[in-house]
Amino acid sequence: MGRGRLILIEGLDRTGKTTQTSILTDRLKPNAQLIKFPDRSTTIGKLINQYLTDKNFNLPNQSVHLLFSANRWEVAENIKETLLNGTNVILDRYVYSGIAYSAAKDVDGMDLQWCLNPDKGLLKPDLTLFLTNESNDDAERDGFGEERYENVQFQKKVKKQFYAAFTEFETPNSNTLKLVDVTNKSIEEVSEEIWKLVQPILSNKEENQEFSFF
Ligand code: Z5A
Predict the structure, then answer these.
(1) Are 7 and 125 in contact (CB under 8 A)?
(2) Ranges for the Thymidylate kinase-like domain (predicted)?
């Protein structure tokens, strides 16, 4: 039995990550586990939740960045064990969100490499799907604007940093990163596109047993 595959869905706010990771996990059940970052249920996650939802609760940008990373390390071992048991793990946001949102703040010293450092050693996904929406209608989707970071100007900076991080930290031509344009597409159309991209990764489970790391 081959190890499970680690599949990440990334994207800007309201591009449909939660919708699509949940559809993909259901499609693969019982052979898939869904993990969403930030995991707001843990002790660290509760602090992150307070930071995101209460604009009067302030922390230094560096501390916030380290909390998001610590939140990933809290479940890192669980992810590895699940994969070794042959179960696929589907991630809703991960290291690239950590880098892109922090680097977009333009804080002196918090460049891409600084932002990656606390995540170094975490498992690298076998496939990263980045959902892009060119129409800006994601800003009109339910709930946009309720939390910190949810404004159009900041999202533009975040998008730039996502691409910069992919260029810096993905291996060129390795086929581990795919862009999925969700512009004007229904939930069903997007999920079909994702399914087509995921299937080849699942069918070569006997090969490629080695893990990659950030
Ligand atoms: N953050 C960070 O700074 N550092 C980190 O390391 C990490 C995260 C991991 C909270 O994340 C914040 O944390 C986030 C990044 C930062 N910044 N902000 N703001 P979160 O993942 O918990 O955020 P969220 O609010 O749960 O998710 P989201 O990004 O806002 O939404 P989404 O998951 O991409 O979208 P969705 O919930 O699936 O869909 C949104 C709505 O659109 C919903 O009503 C859907 O029914 C609808 N939808 C979905 N797809 C479609 C299509 N195709 N057509 C029409 N409508 C659609």
Answers:
(1) yes
(2) 9-194
This model of the complex carries an ipTM of 0.97
Residue 179 contacts residue 130 (beta carbons within 8 Å): yes
Structurally, the chain folds into a number of domains equal to 1
Tokens of 18: 């939660």
Q: Is 185 in the pocket of ligand 1 (CB under 6 A)?
A: yes
**How far is Cα of residue 158 from the mean position of the Cα atoms in its chain?**
13
- Tell me which residue range forms the domain holding 174: 6-203
3-class SS at 115?
A: helix
Chain centre distance of CA 132: 13
d(CA 69, CA 71): 5
DSSP H helical ranges for 31-172: 43-53, 61-84, 95-103, 112-116, 152-169
Q: 2 C-alpha vs ligand 1 centroid, how far in Å?
A: 31
Number of residues in the chain: 214
CATH of the domain at 46: 3.40.50.300
User: How many A from CA of 168 to the centre of ligand 1?
Assistant: 24
Task: Encode burial over 185-207: b for 16+ CB neighbours within 10 A, e otherwise.
Answer: beeeebbebbeeebeebbeebee
Q: What is the pLDDT of residues 26-39, one digit of tens each?
A: 999 999 999 999 99
